[in-house]
Write a structure and sequence with these properties.
This protein has 174 residues and is mainly β. It has no helices and 23 strands.
């Protein structure tokens, strides 16, 4: 499936999940050049159980989550995030409100956030549990730091924020 050149005057130009909606599996989908005036250039809202073998290329959000802004994601595997952008806030590729259990075999490259988390930004108290065999390359935060991953200093769950990193490569993130 392909979601390309979609625009939303609010959030989720490709897919918008309401607060009580879930998506079980997003697999083999290309989200390219989608733009949201608020959050989640390609996807916004709800809970996503699994994203597998999916590409997020050149999506843009005016606020948070250039590729997506979701409440919770169980598993992200074999996916690509390139050149996603936020214009005024955090999470060049991903903004997550509660957490992500596993990120595996995924590439985050050249994503840009205006304010924290060139690749991934976590809301206060959010977490990423496991990052395995994943590459973070050339991601940028224009302010507040976290070229690859940004977690707010006010996080009260710092011990749970990131439990395991195995085989990940962090290269030239600013």
């Amino acid at each position: 499936s392909i979601f390309e050149h979609n625009y939303s005057i609010s959030s989720g130009a490709g897919l918008r999940l309401t607060t009580d909606a879930d998506a079980d599996l997003i697999k083999n989908v290309d989200f390219t050049r989608n733009t949201a005036s608020a959050n989640g250039g390609a996807i916004s809202g709800g809970i996503i159980k699994n994203i597998d073998s999916t590409k997020f290329i050149s999506n843009e959000a005016n606020v948070s989550g250039g590729a997506f802004d979701v409440y919770y994601l169980n598993s992200l595997d074999n996916s690509v995030f390139k050149r996603n952008v936020t214009k005024s806030s955090t999470g060049g590729a991903i903004f997550v409100n509660y957490g992500i259990d596993d990120i595996k075999n995924t590439l985050f490259e050249n994503n840009i956030a205006y304010s924290g988390g060139g690749a991934i930004s976590l809301a206060d108290r959010a977490f990423v549990d496991v990052i395995k065999d994943t590459i973070f390359r050339g991601n940028k935060s224009l302010s507040n730091g976290g070229g690859a991953i940004y977690a707010p200093a006010s996080s009260t769950y710092i011990s749970r924020m990131l439990s395991e990193i195995d085989g990940a490569i962090f290269d030239s993130n600013i």
